[in-house]
Amino acid sequence: MQIEKYKVDELNQQSLNKHKNQFEFVAADVAQLDDVMKKLMAFNVAIPSWALGTGGTRFGRFSGAGEPGSLEEKIEDVGVIHALNKSSNSISLHIPWDIPENAASIKALAAQLGLHFDAVNSNTFQDQKDQKLSYKFGSLHHVDKAVRKQAVEHNIEVIKYGQQLDSKALSVWLSDGSNFPGQLNFRTAFQNTLESLQEIYAALPDDWKVWVEYKPYEPNFYSTTIGDWGQSYLLASKLGSKASTLVDLGHHLQGANIEQIVSLLLMEGKLAGFHFNDSKYGDDDLTVGSINPYQLFLIFNELVEGMDARGMNHATSIGWMIDASHNVKDPIEDLLQSVQAIKIAYAQALLVDKAALQAAQQHNDVVLAQEILQQAYRTDVRPLVAEAGFRNGGALSPVDAYRKLQVRDNLIKERGTNTVATGL
Ligand SMILES: [Mn+2]
Q1: Distance between CA atoms of residues 80 and 287, nearest Å
Q2: d(Cα 171, Cα 294) in Å, to the nearest integer?
Q3: How many CB atoms lie within 10 A of CB 43?
Q4: 3-state DSSP: the chain helix, strand, coil percent, rounded to 5?
Q5: pLDDT tens, 65-109?
Q6: What confidence tier does 178 reach under pLDDT thresholds 50, 70, 90?
Q7: CB neighbours (10 Å) of residue 370?
Q8: What pLDDT digit, counting tens, does each position of 304-341 carry?
Q9: How sure is the predictor about 423, in pLDDT bands with cuts at 50, 70 and 90?
Q10: Number of H helices, E strands in the chain
Q11: In contact, 392 and 86? CB cutoff 8 Å
Q12: Number of other residues whose CB lies within 10 A of the CB of residue 377
């Protein structure tokens, strides 16, 4: 289904006066308001094609109703999200879960909804039906050259699908690792991975990038061959300028200082982008901002400071994407909440008084530095975010509009109750 603009406008009218008052109250204290609003309006976060259905755990999956059963329906769902928040103008595909059989018509459908295609993701962490060789013991790092070759060829095939859709990046996450001490020679595993990635790198079109994601554990529980940002950075550095490190917020051990990692990767020009999610224990893939919004703000504070230091365009120079799993929520509502949380953290980071913070740091004024950061963090920027969406033609409150427009009920009418999204 598609959201009709006049219905969003009607809903906005109902709360417009209240919103305007709230906006003016917050805006009065914002230095360089026009610049902040322009940046908020330009900011978009890509939606992964695998996040539009209900996810599961290894214990089970409780499918929702009206889930998308095809790539076309997934694109329509992203269209719904974008129509409401005007901040999700791209979709990231997972191959082979979402192979575009007819690229021209898929592209046309996306364009009609104001969408384009973000990075394409390869998958060598599970075996596909009729696959010749198994990835049980890894893919790009495998001890058997034939398995590595098969995985390299898959990645090159993913690039070709991406080219048909005007994607510009290949995102690689490997589950390669070991479950027990002694299972692997770490150096050999790393060298094999590097050689495989070099073959993939050589197949990248001129204007493409390859993003190397890391993760400390799971599904392997003793070692992961690309286990942390250092290992990813090492690979990306050896590969060349088209390779960089992708940070998935859930892919860190507890207590890791992600904002510091981000800051240094940015400094080195090696931060490819983000997979946003939130977590309490491990790679929990929860709604962004639901557990630790302060950490998200601190990350965005480093991002804004670091991007400004390098003169980078906030909206386009880094890949922003959600990578989450929705086990109990309606996936579209969850994604709407996540994008709002990201925009709130971004808006707060834009409000940080950087000159004052720098001065406080220079004078070792620890108390003042904290005051400056928390002044921004504790500002209720929600009216700024709502105004940005509104000015772009979206809903003042996307989740509220989604419910009032009874989108899920309509999707259930269209698709039925017994649906399971393809992919996960
Ligand atoms: Mn990820």
Answers
A1: 18
A2: 27
A3: 20
A4: 50, 10, 40
A5: 999 999 999 999 999 999 999 999 999 999 999 999 999 999 999
A6: very high
A7: 11
A8: 999 999 999 999 999 999 999 988 999 999 999 999 99
A9: low
A10: 15, 12
A11: yes
A12: 19
- How many angstroms is it from 323 CA to the middle of ligand 1? 5
Average pLDDT over residues 277-282: 96
Give 213 Cα–ligand 1 centroid separation in angstroms. Answer: 7
Cα(216) to centroid of ligand 1, in Å? 12
Tokens 């996960």, residue? Answer: 424
Q: 367 CA distance to ligand 1 centroid (A)?
A: 36
Q: CA 297 to CA 350: how far, in whole Å? A: 10
Ligand 1 center to 369 CA (angstroms): 32
Structure tokens at 422: 């393809």
Backbone angles phi, psi at 149, to 5 degrees: -65, -45
CATH superfamily name and code, 5-121+249-415 = Divalent-metal-dependent TIM barrel enzymes (3.20.20.150)
- The alpha carbon of 94 and the centre of ligand 1 are apart by a number of angstroms equal to 11
- Give the residue from 88, 71, 117 showing the smallest Cα distance to 3: 88
Amino acid at site 183: Q
Mean pLDDT of 395-400: 98
pLDDT in tens, 179-188: 999 999 999 9
pTM of the model: 0.97
Distance from residue 245's CA to the centre of ligand 1 (Å): 12
Q: Which residues surround ligand 1, an ion (CB under 5 A)?
A: 248, 275, 323
Write out the H or E segment, with its range, that includes residue 177: strand 177-178
CA of 358 to the centre of ligand 1 (A): 33
Q: Tell me, what's the pLDDT at 180?
A: 98
For residue 404, give every residue at least 6 positions away whose Cβ sits within 8 Å of its Cβ, in sequence order, or none. 11
Domain locations along the chain? 5-121+249-415
